[in-house]
Structures are given as C-alpha cells and as structure tokens.
From TrEMBL:
Renumbered residue ranges of the record's region Disordered: 461-494, 655-675
SUPFAM superfamilies documented for this protein: ARM repeat (SSF48371), P-loop containing nucleoside triphosphate hydrolases (SSF52540)
KW GTP-binding (keyword) present: no
Record protein name field: Pachytene checkpoint protein 2
Species classification: Eukaryota, Metazoa, Spiralia, Lophotrochozoa, Platyhelminthes
GO cellular component terms, A-Z: chromosome; nucleus
GO molecular function: ATP binding; ATP hydrolysis activity
Length: 1102
C-alpha cells in the first residue's frame, strides 16, 4: 500500500532529476490536502509530519527548480502560490532569497516577481493569521514563529533591493502599498494586538514610520464611525507592545500628519493607564523630548500634542487625574520657564525661540485653559503670571528685533486670555506697535482655539496611501536602485535640506556589488537601536547587523553620553558579535573604527573592559590582536598622534629579518619626535596609566606560554605586538606624571623579554626601546627615577653587547640604531638654567651636536696675583678709595655669573651688548654720531664722576657697570649716559626655587646635609612633571611650595635663609659627632670653624 511519505519522496526525487510529475505535485501542494484527488486514503497520523517536514522540502525543491534550475514551469509555481500553505510557501521563497545560490540578475528579478504575486496578486499574507483568529491557543503557541515571519516579511523589500539592480515597477517597493497590505492583514481582535505591535515596531525600525503613521490615521479616520469600541482601540492597544526606540519616530510623524488631535486621541487614549504604568511614562518622556530636544517647523505637531492630551483628560471620569499634574509639571511649567529664561533668549536662534513660543502657546491654549476649571488643588502654578511678565521684559530687552517682536506679540495674546486679574476692573491688556509679519502671524495662530472635529470635512492632504503602479504600467521615472532618489520616511522632510549634509555617508553591504535602494540611505538613529541590531542572531537579520556595524562608529561619536552608559554592552557586541560577511576588509574597518570611537569617548571604562577581556585564558588569538590594535589607536588619537589606516598597517610579523634585504635593514631608523603634532592637547595623559600598567602584568604569563606548547607561536606573536605597543603607548603619554614610572618598569622588564628565543620578540623589544628613547623628553628619560647614570651606563653596555653578540641580523641593526639614538640623546646638552619668565624654554637650549663651538682656554688667576689692587685718590688731607682692580679671570669671581638668577633676559642682554660694543670698537665706529644721549659738557658736568665717565669713552674695550639700591635719587644726567637701564625687582617663584636649590645643593656638597637618595630636581624637570607629586619628588615639591610662599623677598635675604634656618631653627646636637641627617629631618651642625668661615667670607652661598 502506497503511503503519503513514499509519494512525496518519489516526487522530490523526480524534481531533482528534472522530470517532475505535474499532476501529482499539483495535488500535493494544495492546502488542505484532497484525498479524493490523490486517489488513496490519508490518515491523520500522516498529515502532521507531512505539513511539518515533507511539504517544506517539496515546495523548496519546486522553487529552486523554478528559479535556479529552470526545470519547473511557471504554471506550477502559480499553483503553489495560489493554493499552497501560505506560511510554508513564504518560508521557502525567503530561504531561497537568503541562501545565496542565486547568481544571475534576471533570476533575482524572477524571485522578486514571485514575491509580488504572493503578496499582492493572490493576497496570501492574511491566511497566515487565519488559523490564529479561529484558534487563539494556537496563536499563543506559535507566537515566536509568527514574530519571525513578520520580521522576515518586513525586511523583504530591503533584501530584494540589495540584490536587484535597476528600476523595478513592483508594488513591493512602494512603501505605502507594502505597509497597507501587511497591516491590513490583521483582524481587529484582541488576539492580534501584540503581533500588530511587533509589526509596527519592525516597520518603524526599517524606516517606514511615516507610512505607518499615515496608515493608522487613515484607518481611524475612515472607519471611526463604523467600528466597535474594541476595533476602534485596536491600534492604540497595539502601540503598547512596540519597542521604546520606535515610539518617538512614529508619534512625531503621527503628530505632524494628523489634521486634528481628535484622531490621535482615539489612538492613544488606551495607552495612558495610570501613574505607575511604564508605557504611559515613556510616552510622556517622548513628548518631553519632542518639545525640548527636537525642532519642527510649524505648530501643527504641538497643537496636536496638547490637544490630544487635553482630549484624553476630558474622557477620564476623574477630572483630577494624574495626567493633568504630569503634563503641567513635566511639560507646561518647564516650557514657561524656558520661554522666560534670559540665557535661553540670548543664546538660541530665532527659529528655536519661535518653536518654544508656539509650544508655550499650544500648551496654554489647548491644555491649560480648557482644563483651568478642572485643575485639582495644588496643581496650579501661582508664579505663572510672574513668569510671563518676566519673559516679556526679557524679550523686550534683547538686542535682536525679531526677539523683541515675539515678546510683544506673545505678551499681547497671552494677557488677553490669562485667568488673572491685575486690577479691579480686570483690565490687563498690553498693546505694542510692531509690523505684522509671518513671525507675528505664526505666534498669533497658536493662540486660536482649535475647532471641533467634523468627520465629514475633507482633509487638506491625503492620508490614504497613493496607488502603486501596476505591473503592466510603465516604470517610474526615479531609479529604485539609486540612493539619491530615496528619502527615509523617518527623516523630517522640512529639515532635510539642513540636516542631510550632516549625516555620514554609510557603506552599503550588497551581494551583487550594487548600491541598495533602501539600505544605502538608512541607518539606525539611536545608539541603543544600533546595539540591538548588532546583537541579532538570526540568519535573516544578517544585513541589519552589517548596517549597524557600519554606522556604529559615527553614532558613538554623535552620542557620547549614551556611549558612556553603554560601554560594556557596546564593547562586548563589537568584540563577540560576528555576522556573515562577504567583504572582510570593509567589515574589519567598520568594527575597528567603532572600537576606536568608543575608546575616545570613554577611555577609562573602555580600557578596563578590553584589558579584562585580553587577560582571559579563553580569549582567542584574533581577538587579542584586535584589542591591542584598538588600544594603541585610541592612545594615538587621544594624544593627537596620526593613526595609520588599518588596511595599510604593516603586520608585526614583518619584523622578521628574513623578509627584508640587507640594504633595507641598514636604512631602518627609529621613529622620532615628529610623531607628535605641536600645539595639541594631549587628552591621553589622565588615562595613560590605565592603558599601560594592566597590560604590563600580562607579559610574564605570555612570556612563559610562548616558550613551549602547541600554541606557543601564537602567544609569541601576541607578545611581539604587545611589546611594540608598549613603546607607542609610552610615547603617547607625553608629559604625563606617570611616564617616568612607565619608562622605569619597561626597562626593568626589558632584559627578561629580550632573552626570548623568538627573534620577532627581541626585535619588538628593540623597536619599543627605540621609540621610548626618541620620543620621551630628556628631563623625564634621564631623571633619577627613570634612568640614572648607573642604569644609563648599563643600558649602553647591554645595547653594545646586542650589536656584537646577537645572532639575528635584524636585531643587530635595531640594536645599533637604538644605541645611536641613545648616544645622540645623551649628547644633547640643555642649559640647566634659564632666564625665561616661565622657566624652561626649549628654544633657548643649545644642541652641541649641531652648534659651532669656539673654545677659549684660560687659566684662573689665584693666590697673591688674584688679590685686588686698590686705587687711592688724595683730596687735600683726605685719602679715598677710588676703585678696586682685579686681574681676570680671577678665582675670586669664579661661579658668580652662574649664581645670578633673574626672571628676564638680563644676562643674555648684557652679553649681546658687550659683544656689539666690542664689534663697534673693532670697526672704529665714530660713537659720537650714534650716541644721541650725550649732551655738551658745559651744560651737564657738575661732578667729577661725570668727567671720569665721559673720559672713559675714549677707551673702546672698557665697560662701566653700576648698581644702586636708591633708584629714586639718581641724577638724571647719570641716567642719560647709560646705554642700558634695567630694573631688577624681587625674584619670582621659579627664581626663588633655583636659589633655594643651589643653597641646599651646596650644603649637600660640603656634607652638612645628606640627600639620602632623594635628589632635588631642577625647575625644568619639575615643570615637565606639571608639579605633580610622586615618589621621586616629594622634597622638590616641598621646596617649590616654600618658594611660592617666599615671593616678595629679595635675593640677599633668600640666600641668608638657609644659614639662619640652620643656626636657629634646627635641634642642636653635639657638634663633634660626624653623623649627618637627611634634609627634611634633623640636620647636625658643622664644626665651629666652618661657622666662622660662613660669617666672615659669606661665600658658601655665592
């Protein structure tokens, strides 16, 4: 006896061989089965497996034979579409579309025509839900299946437009027609409200919010009188089941398109179900966002919004409902305060002020005034009148005439209807003189009450979707495949001209290399929506995931606040969600750009998430590579270092020496300071430690794992990339207080890493070391905390051994280049003192490697020859000391020049003046022509000093320097003879710090103070650390704080303070003891002879 299963298997076999039996197939695909046509009995036990397993296989083979193999005639496919089980037919057609087995364009179009016939010609979507309308328990059991069917159905136009090129005159690409045919398939009963909500939400997410809004409004308008209350409330109840991300685009379009708020009231009155209902509260949040965040031209949306809320309140049995309080407290009164706020008036544009004024007028006219008598106690705002008057005065005080005019018009209109009495007769009218313009008419129209709804009136615009072209009609003029002709219905048409240019151009992922008609111009609007799209896991949602990945980076940068809240979720989605891709390079670029954008927005939380993922034992090789690349690029972008495109980035495997010729290796150089851009803000400094130190802890584990084991080569590759990235991250932390610690710990880790057997790991170590040496300032690199003289010597010796003993040629070249860079860094001699006002000035540094040196050898004069010679003059019986002469260079004056500390360029000015004077003397310039300050002798000579000064001018190699502490009584004749007059005030804080440091350094040198390993840093090094205290500079910070408190003291007093402190403010101990205490604790006195020398010569502090 032949069974149904045997017949199906035989039929499928014949279809696969290309010889289908048309009669048998026609009877098998009919739904329901007709046993009489099959001429054998079919039991109930055979029917269930037939519909669940055998029929999908049979229809799938038929569709494949028709579209791909061309062995099934079109008439048979028409029979399947017209009489087959509708859900099975659609599933098989959809699986054929997404399977990727179709290659030719004409077959894709053939498949699109089949979908067109299934949806529009034979209207097979309603039968999918027909069984649910008669058997409600079946609907509950198949809810997930029906939701998947809806998602696949609604994504169908996007999928077809991705694979079909050129103009297609199909109704399936008509947004209005497609929305109408899908949403009209639901029977208006309570069992379909949730499914309808799912369908509405999917349509909104796919960019059809405008079409859905017009369809719902059209349905309510056309059938409001003929429907029962339950059917009339069908769409309002369905809106309670849509996703929160879909509410704003749908509601904003409904408010814009509705001709009267009564229609929206019919839809939304079942949405608000009490103060504790989360759906109601979310709708109110959307209304608040529409008013205070969004901007719409015209007042139709605002009038519909407050008119709808007013109508909903009036239908409630309790007039003192929560909705009155909620609308007034969340919308009305904040609008009034914002309208009156002087800061908002000053900073916002005229268009925004008009929008706020219309919102205030709409709330006042459509909601507040109709319900003023029903306001419950405690909900009225007694300050409303004062806010209005305050806002009018602020508008009138504004400099812009448009703002003043708005204040005049608004004041006139609102005070006419404001329910407050100013005087006994109730006269509180204002009247201003202004010109009637479109601006004034727009405000006045918002105060006109809305008329009652008349159902027979004709609308000013069509709500019914326009008729789609029939298949036999000519193709439309616009190219469906052209992205320039398509406008997303979620976009505001009024604002398209001003906002389209600001949206990023999105990449379209297609299967046939053509731009998609629908996906090419559509993207998720919100970051949460994008995150949900990336987490979709079904095969039919793959195209949505690709689009979300392509725009994730731009959305993160556009919404940094939301990105900070979703750092963990976005990081997990970007790292672990992997859709099916055809263009791996483009997808990797999109994924990497999103990771970098997220790190730039929230670097601290981002680094914690990525590093926690990196150190997990289950983290894969490719994921670790992506994490390291993302962390490095985030560091570069935050520090304003240019980032190399991901596609052009050289792999770390290129460090292998065998991949380059010897000529290329000899020319290799370490990156220099040119990586950083000048005058840029380094935002990486506060988070540099969060990127560097947690990664550093993973090096020992990777080092041991990369020595042996099956995956040792992968761990060695990750270790190579990690070490190379250390150098980049350390260089990006320019001027960070943690940079010295980075250098110190990296140098401590370097010997262990360099003992690795893999040459690539050793090469990466040398590259990272070279990057650190060439990019970090010398003040940080050669500080005691990072690299003292002993460690510097050991590092040079180690690099020299690498050059001579290394077996890998590439390592030899890198070690040689790194050693040369280190020696060049050492040869850079920077002036330790600076007369600049702000301390260290790099422009005043002298690089001896490029400077032209002129060396003068001299011998200091000491002993009796160095003693000064006094010149005596006799005036009668009195002998005076006319002067003192030293033979130069004298040991008596050694170190005096270096001990001078000024806040200006006094020393350099004096040197330049002396050099110019000697040059003029050498060229025998006639000085009396140039010296315009010299006056005739007979008018000015009053003292013998002036005569001597004027006589000295004949000697070209003599300079006269004079100082005085009584500047107010100097003779002007003497000042006229001075070529340079400099006022030297009290030293500033940097100069005081240098003076104190020199004094303490001298005490340390002679043994009165023990430094105890804590060296006093120079002002330049302290400034490079941004005066931030760490474990190497506590004494320097204390001295800097003392210098700041000493501002105002003169230099003589400052140099006496260490001696006075030593003498009077330290605990006295036995002076014969030879022990010495560190500064900051107890300091012992020196022998008495040293004190005598200090008092007599006063030369310890020059």
């Amino acid at each position: 006896m032949t069974s149904l299963k045997q017949i199906v298997e035989e039929t499928c076999s014949r279809i696969s061989r290309g010889t289908p039996s048309l009669d048998i197939i026609s009877n098998l695909v009919d739904y329901p089965l007709n046993p009489e046509a099959l001429e054998f009995h079919i039991s109930d036990s055979e029917t269930v497996p037939f519909y669940q397993h055998h029929l999908p296989v049979l229809i799938g083979l038929l569709i494949k034979g028709y579209v791909v193999d061309d062995v099934v005639p079109m008439s048979l496919i028409e029979r399947v579409i017209a009489k087959g089980k509708s859900d099975v037919v659609f599933t098989c057609l959809f699986n054929q579309l997404v399977s990727g087995t179709v290659r030719e364009q004409h077959k894709y179009k053939l498949l699109a025509d089949t979908f067109e016939a299934f949806i529009f010609q034979y209207r097979r979507i309603p039968p999918v839900f027909q069984i649910a309308s008669t058997h409600e328990p079946a609907l509950l059991e198949n809810k997930a299946v029906l939701e998947d069917f809806l998602r696949s159905l609604i994504s169908l136009p996007s999928r077809l437009s991705n694979v079909c090129c050129g103009p297609l005159a199909l109704k399936i690409f008509d947004r209005f027609a497609f929305v109408d045919v899908v949403l009209s398939s639901f029977t208006r009963s309570s069992c379909f409200t949730e499914l309808c909500g799912v369908a509405i939400g999917q349509f909104v997410l796919s960019g059809n919010a405008l079409e859905v809004a017009k369809f719902i409004l059209s349905s309510v308008r056309n059938y409001s009188e003929s429907l029962s209350p339950g059917e009339r409330n069908f769409y309002g109840t369905a809106l309670r089941f849509i996703k929160p991300d879909c509410i704003e685009p749908l509601i904003s379009n409904m408010l814009k398109e509705s001709p009267h708020p009564e229609y929206i009231k019919m839809i939304l009155k079942d949405v608000f179900q009490g103060p504790f209902d989360p759906v109601s509260n979310y709708f109110l949040k959307v209304f608040r966002r529409i008013i205070f965040v969004r901007y719409f031209q015209g007042d139709r949306l605002l009038r519909n919004l407050f008119g709808t809320l007013s109508g909903i309140v009036r239908e409630f049995s309790d007039p003192s409902s929560y909705l009155i309080r909620k609308v007034n407290s969340d919308l009305g009164y904040p609008i009034a305060r914002l309208w009156a706020d002087p800061v908002s008036i000053q900073r916002t544009s005229v268009e925004q002020r008009l929008y706020i004024s219309q919102a205030f007028a709409s709330w006042f006219t459509d909601f507040y005034m109709p319900l003023v008598g029903a306001l419950p106690s405690g909900t009225d705002n007694p300050d409303l009148l004062s806010d209005v008057l305050f806002g009018i005065s602020n508008h009138l005080a504004n400099a812009r005439p448009e703002i003043r005019t708005m204040g005049m018009v608004f004041g006139e209109c609102i005070l006419e209807i404001l329910p407050f009495r100013v005087n006994s007769n109730g006269d509180c009218h204002l009247k201003f003189d202004y010109e009637e313009t479109a601006l004034t008419r727009a405000i006045k129209s918002s105060f006109v009450p809305l008329p009652a709804l008349v159902y027979e009136e004709d609308m000013s615009f069509p709500l019914t979707p326009p008729r789609a072209p029939q298949p036999n009609e000519s193709a439309p003029k616009g190219n469906v495949g052209s992205t320039s002709e398509v406008i997303d219905s979620d976009d505001d048409v009024d604002d398209a001209a001003t906002t389209d240019d600001l949206l990023p151009q999105l990449q379209s992922f297609t299967k046939c290399g053509e731009t998609s008609a629908t996906l090419g111009t559509r993207k998720p609007r919100y970051l949460r929506e994008c995150l949900d799209g990336m987490l979709l896991g079904k095969p039919e949602d793959n195209h949505t995931r690709l689009i979300c990945f392509s725009v994730a980076g731009s959305l993160i940068r556009e919404h940094p606040g939301a990105a900070k809240e979703l750092v963990a979720d976005l990081t997990s989605a970007l790292l672990h969600s992997q859709p099916v891709i055809s263009d791996e390079v483009s997808f990797n670029e999109s994924q990497h750009s999103a990771l970098v954008a997220l790190g730039v927005v929230s670097p601290k939380d981002y680094s914690r998430c990525l590093i926690n993922e990196f150190i997990q034992p289950t983290c894969s090789f490719g994921l670790r590579q992506r994490i390291l690349t993302a962390l490095t690029d985030v560091a570069c972008e935050l520090s304003n270092v240019p980032i190399m495109p991901l596609a052009n980035r050289i792999s770390h495997a290129a460090l292998d020496g065998g991949s380059q010729s010897s000529t290329q290796r000899d020319k290799r150089s370490i990156p220099n300071n040119g990586l950083r851009q000048k005058h840029s803000i380094n935002s990486f400094i506060p988070v540099a430690g969060d990127f560097f130190f947690p990664l550093l802890n993973s090096v020992p584990q990777l080092h041991s794992a990369s020595q042996k084991g099956y995956f040792a080569h992968q761990d060695a590759s990750i270790l190579t990339q990690l070490i190379a990235n250390y150098g980049i991250i350390c260089a990006c932390a320019h001027s960070s207080p943690a940079q010295w610690r980075m250098v110190h710990e990296f140098l401590e880790l370097l010997p262990m890493v360099y003992r690795h057997s893999e040459p690539t790991v050793r090469q990466a170590s040398l590259v990272a070391l070279g990057t650190v040496i060439t990019t970090i300032p010398s003040a940080i690199l050669f500080s005691v905390s990072s690299l003292d003289s002993h460690e510097l010597s050991n590092l040079m010796e180690w690099l020299a051994r690498c050059v001579t003993r290394e077996t890998d040629n590439e390592c030899k070249v890198l070690a040689s280049v790194t050693l040369s860079a280190l020696m060049d860094k050492v040869r850079e001699i920077l002036l330790s003192e600076s007369d600049a006002k702000d301390g260290f000035d790099a422009s005043r540094s002298v690089d001896l490697s490029v400077a032209i040196l002129v060396v003068h050898l001299f011998q200091m004069i000491s002993g009796d020859e160095a003693a000064p010679v006094h010149e005596l003059l006799e005036f009668g019986s009195e002998t005076i000391n006319a002067g003192t002469v030293w033979l130069l260079p004298s040991m008596e004056m050694h170190g005096l020049w270096e001990s001078l500390v000024f806040d200006s360029d006094i020393k350099s000015d004096l040197l330049q003046y002396a050099q110019t004077a000697l040059l003029f003397a050498e060229k025998q310039v006639f000085c009396y022509i140039l010296d315009v300050t010299v006056l005739p002798f007979r008018y000015r000579i009053n003292l013998s000093l002036f005569c001597i000064v004027d006589q000295i001018k004949r000697y070209p190699n003599v300079l006269v320097l004079a100082t005085s502490n009584v500047t107010g009584v100097i003779d002007p004749a003497f000042l006229d003879r001075a070529d340079i007059r400099i006022f030297i005030g009290p030293p500033s804080a940097p100069a005081i710090y240098t003076i104190y440091r020199s004094c303490l350094t001298e005490l340390i040198r002679v043994g009165l103070v023990d430094e105890d390993g804590s060296n006093l840093l120079s002002y330049q090094a302290l400034a490079a650390m941004q005066f931030t205290e760490n474990k190497i500079n506590p004494a320097s910070i204390d001295l800097w704080n003392l210098a700041q408190r000493s501002v105002g003291l003169n230099g003589r007093t400052l140099r006496k303070l260490p001696l006075l402190a030593h003498a009077f403010h330290l605990k006295k101990v036995n002076p014969r003891t030879q022990s010495v205490m560190p500064y900051g604790a107890r300091v012992h006195l020196a022998p008495p002879t040293s004190i005598v020398i200090l008092l007599l010569r006063n030369r310890l502090f020059p």
